[in-house]
């Protein structure tokens, strides 16, 4: 397998096209990037900002430049010796009429050749959750009519801009009594139409309609628009679909969706013909050498991840680099049977936090947050969020599971007992999912299931308790028929419930330290240590040494440098708590009292101050009004998302405008140029945290580039990334400014100007990638060894070595430096530090990669003797 040196994640769309990407190749070469790691580039819904709503997996998006644009980019990458990794989406496609496969299913129902492509429950009509009210209400309000869709060549149910195609078999009833001859001709044509030849049918109908006189077309359109409500309703009832209120999607959708997004329909790639159809183009690109690697989006959504990955590996061969988007919880492992390089690296971000968070002061921070916000503990918040998902957001999925459970365990248990047992089991699930197939669960999965069942049992009694045992028995053993479908559906639903409960609900309710509210992490983790980080890296080196190591993605809750700054709050919780109390008093006039309480409430106010502290890029002086206004616009979008994802006083489906307006006014007031007392105090307080954040950010970069795995540079983060959650983190970076910084950098600088401008980080990134290029085997396959650190300040230093054969690297970097910075220059703070070396690393000469020169090492390294401390990378000569 070809392992990248370093990847560069580029977000296409939002101004980024294939031709625009070509202009960045020189920048990537200057950084030393080996592979472009592209977001989805295949055809997606019009105006898509991310590309995960694929409409055609076998066509390049014309908005990006189409096939010709892609070929230009591919050729330019080849000429620059830069490889290409594509992000593919096998789990779902857009449930949109722009998607030909889906349109066919809507029009023809089970007769469509694509009906089995999607995970649809065909025991009932296909639900299309598009209406703003019930169908009958929309019909009565004259929002629905039957139309002649001349562009598509069919009759359709019209709802505002949408034209939902009717099954041709219903045309004759609709057109009965139509004036002139056009209606009769269409009816005759429709009588012989078939789903297998629908393109020919629509083309012939287009020809028929456009060949008719304008007066005939107008007469037919007027007839259709004037049809009585009863006939329109009858036509709707004759279809394979039902138009329903979008709010019913959570309780009554007839197809598997991605998470809770009705606009993304689950694909059945476990079916061989569906796999082939969905991967035709990408496999061509792999086989002709255009594409070197693939990122598999949301692998946990698939019915059979291991089966899919083995099929994909067989199709692409042994040399193609494969990684999966997979969230690993705590001590969970990627299944050893998966033929992949590893994950996309969320767990690496969680491990990094252990370097920067001061656990010794965790209780102080806990108490300060509880005293101010009076919040529940995180475990209770997560449980509440899971129960909300089970009862409301995934009500339909739970109904289906209950029905399948009844078929699988027999008739001994009623639906209520099965529902209670399933909800308790899912609530207790500690990971996203298990990976059972038709055979019994693997040992690790069985342990997870048994642990969850034991915890669930404590909350159940009587029939529900017995039902739990029956459910666990089915999930644990070999399965066929309904039992296999039950296991598959159960495994496909636990992941989305965990994701939505944790990442998109609990993380927006629990605000103690926002830096820890990150995908794959534990916001309430109490015991965090450098030793834990070392253990995680040793495991990573053994289990997935070629996985991606990342510090920012398009899905992280905030940019890596914002996170690096906020970690420092854990080192001075009293300072932060006193500051929040002051700011609360300063801004009390901005808080509004509503019927259901103050807006913002105290927990949200605490969160807003932290979010501001992380995202405020330049903290040395108050920006002018124009800069404040631009930042206010970005921050307002974040506030909206924060409030709605929390699902406490507002929600995406039930927006409380009074509450949101009040909180938005508070946030705007914080950023008003007139609020000088607060702004000056805020920036003065944040400045020491920002200085510590610069140090943490460079350590993050040094560790990412030298720890086990393939380092990824998320677009723009080579300079500094203080972004907020998406869509803020998908903005176009200032590439010319970054290129100028890199071009003018003369070695690795650690002065205030270089830190603030981002030049230090750009130069460090390029220098470290160059080191990886010079010693690829060392960093790709070297083992990982924690090194013993002693002397005053040793708690603020992380040191480790990589070793393969005779080649070795030693990495030393600062962490938890807030108090040290307050005492003076960081370089002098570590003069007393010694790093002990094992015999096979001692008595050798090393090249000082960052500052130049050589270092002769004995049984210990004395940092006072090494040029360039506190950031040290030594590689054997």
Which percent range fits the helix content? 40-55%
Largest sheet data = 8 strands, parallel
Q: What would you give as the CATH superfamily of the largest domain?
A: Glycosidases
Low-confidence runs of at least 5 consecutive residues: none
CATH class of the largest domain: Alpha Beta
Give the overall shape, derived from the CA principal axes.
globular
Average pLDDT, all residues: 95
Give an overview of the whole structure.
With 877 residues, this protein is α/β, with parallel strands linked by helices. It has 6 domains: 7-92 and 270-344, TIM Barrel (Alpha-Beta Barrel), CATH 3.20.20.80; 100-254, no CATH class; 376-508, no CATH class; 565-688; 734-774, no CATH class; 782-877, Golgi alpha-mannosidase II (Immunoglobulin-like, Sandwich), CATH 2.60.40. 46% of the residues lie in helices and 14% in strands. It is built from 34 helices and 29 strands. The strands form 8 sheets. The protein has an 8-stranded parallel beta sheet with strand order 16-15-14-5-2-1-20-17, sandwiched between helices. It has a 6-stranded antiparallel beta sheet with strand order 21-23-24-29-26-27. Strand 23 and strand 24 (807-814) form a beta hairpin. Helix 7 (182-191) packs antiparallel against helix 8 (198-210), helix 18 crosses helix 19 and helix 26 runs antiparallel to helix 27 (657-670). The longest helix has 31 residues, at 676-706. The model has no long low-confidence stretch (mean pLDDT 95).
């Amino acid at each position: 397998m070809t392992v990248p040196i370093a990847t560069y994640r580029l977000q296409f769309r939002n101004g980024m096209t294939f031709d625009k990407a070509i202009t960045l190749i020189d920048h990537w070469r200057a950084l030393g990037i080996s592979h472009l790691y592209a977001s989805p580039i295949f055809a997606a819904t019009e105006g898509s900002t991310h590309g995960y709503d694929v409409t055609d997996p076998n066509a390049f998006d014309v908005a990006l430049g189409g096939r010709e644009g892609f070929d230009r980019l591919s050729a330019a990458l080849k000429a620059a010796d830069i490889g290409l990794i594509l992000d593919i989406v096998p789990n779902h496609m857009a449930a949109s009429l722009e998607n030909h496969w889906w349109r066919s299913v809507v029009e023809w129902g089970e007769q469509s050749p694509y009906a089995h492509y999607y995970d649809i429950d065909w025991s009932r009509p296909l639900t299309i959750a598009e209406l703003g009210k019930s169908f009958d209400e929309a019909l009565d309000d004259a929002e629905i009519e039957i139309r002649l869709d001349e562009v598509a060549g069919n009759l359709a149910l019209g709802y505002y801009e949408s034209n939902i195609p009717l099954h041709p078999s219903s045309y004759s009833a609709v057109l009965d009594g139509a004036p002139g001859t056009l209606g009769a001709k269409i009816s005759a044509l429709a009588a012989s139409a078939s789903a297998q030849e629908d393109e020919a049918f629509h083309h012939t109908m287009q020809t028929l309609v456009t060949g008719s006189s304008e007066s005939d077309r107008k007469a037919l359109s007027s007839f259709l628009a004037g049809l009585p409500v009863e006939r329109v309703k009858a036509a709707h009832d004759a279809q394979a679909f039902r138009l329903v209120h979008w709010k019913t999607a959570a309780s009554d959708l007839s197809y598997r969706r991605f998470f809770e997004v009705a606009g993304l329909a689950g694909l059945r790639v476990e079916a061989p013909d569906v796999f082939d159809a969905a991967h035709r183009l990408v496999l061509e690109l792999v086989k002709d050498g255009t594409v070197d690697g693939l990122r598999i989006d949301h692998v946990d959504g698939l019915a059979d991840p291991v089966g899919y990955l083995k099929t994909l590996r067989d199709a692409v061969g042994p040399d193609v680099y494969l990684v999966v988007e997979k969230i690993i919880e705590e001590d969970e492992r990627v299944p050893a049977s998966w033929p992949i390089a590893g994950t996309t690296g969320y767990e690496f971000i969680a491990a990094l936090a252990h370097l920067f968070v001061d656990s010794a002061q965790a209780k102080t921070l806990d108490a300060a947050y509880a005293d101010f916000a009076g919040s529940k503990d995180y475990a209770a918040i997560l449980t509440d969020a899971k129960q909300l998902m089970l009862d409301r957001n995934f009500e339909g999925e739970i109904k289906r599971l209950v029905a399948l459970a009844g078929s699988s365990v027999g008739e001994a248990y009623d639906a209520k007992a099965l529902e209670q047992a399933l909800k308790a089991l899912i609530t207790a699930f500690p990971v996203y999912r298990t990976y059972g197939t038709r055979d019994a669960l693997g040992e690790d999965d069985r342990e997870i299931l048994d642990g969850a069942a034991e915890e669930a049992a404590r909350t159940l009694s009587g029939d529900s308790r017995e039902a739990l045992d029956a459910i666990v028995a089915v999930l644990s053993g070999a399965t066929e028929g309904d039992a296999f479908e039950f296991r598959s559906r159960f495994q496909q639903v636990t992941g989305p419930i965990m994701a939505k409960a944790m990442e998109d609900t609990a993380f927006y309710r629990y605000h103690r330290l926002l830096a820890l509210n990150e995908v794959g992490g534990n916001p309430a983790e109490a015991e965090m240590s450098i030793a834990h980080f070392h253990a995680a890296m040793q495991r990573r080196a053994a289990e997935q040494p070629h996985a991606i190591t990342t510090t920012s993605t398009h899905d992280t809750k905030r940019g890596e440098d914002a996170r690096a700054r906020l970690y420092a709050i854990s080192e001075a919780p009293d300072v932060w708590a006193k500051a929040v109390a002051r700011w609360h008093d300063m801004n009390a006039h901005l808080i509004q009292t509503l019927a259901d309480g103050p807006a913002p409430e105290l927990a949200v106010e605490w969160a807003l101050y932290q979010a501001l502290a992380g995202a405020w890029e330049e903290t040395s002086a108050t920006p002018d009004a124009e800069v404040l206004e631009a930042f206010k616009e970005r921050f307002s979008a974040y506030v909206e998302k924060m409030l709605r994802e929390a699902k406490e006083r507002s929600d995406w489906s039930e927006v409380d405008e009074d509450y949101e307006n009040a909180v938005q006014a508070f946030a705007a007031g914080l950023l008003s140029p007139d609020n000088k007392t607060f702004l000056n105090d805020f920036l003065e307080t944040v400045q020491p945290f920002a200085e510590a954040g610069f140090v943490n950010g460079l350590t993050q970069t040094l560790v990412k580039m030298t720890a086990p795995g393939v380092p990824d540079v998320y677009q723009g983060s080579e300079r500094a990334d203080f972004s907020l959650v998406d869509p803020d983190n998908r903005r176009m970076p200032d590439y010319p400014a970054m290129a100028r910084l890199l071009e003018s950098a003369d070695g690795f600088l650690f002065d205030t100007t270089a830190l603030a401008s981002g030049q230090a980080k750009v130069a460090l990134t390029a220098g470290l990638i160059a080191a990886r290029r010079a010693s690829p085997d060392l960093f790709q396959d070297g083992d990982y060894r924690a090194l013993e650190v002693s002397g005053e300040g040793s708690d603020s230093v992380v040191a480790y070595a990589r070793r393969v054969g005779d080649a070795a690297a030693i990495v030393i970097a600062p962490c938890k430096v807030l108090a040290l910075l307050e005492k003076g220059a960081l370089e002098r703070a570590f003069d007393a530090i010694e790093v002990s070396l094992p015999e096979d690393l001692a008595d050798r000469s090393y090249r000082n990669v960052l500052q130049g020169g050589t270092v002769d090492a004995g049984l210990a390294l004395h940092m006072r003797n090494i040029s360039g401390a506190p950031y040290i990378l030594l590689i054997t000569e």
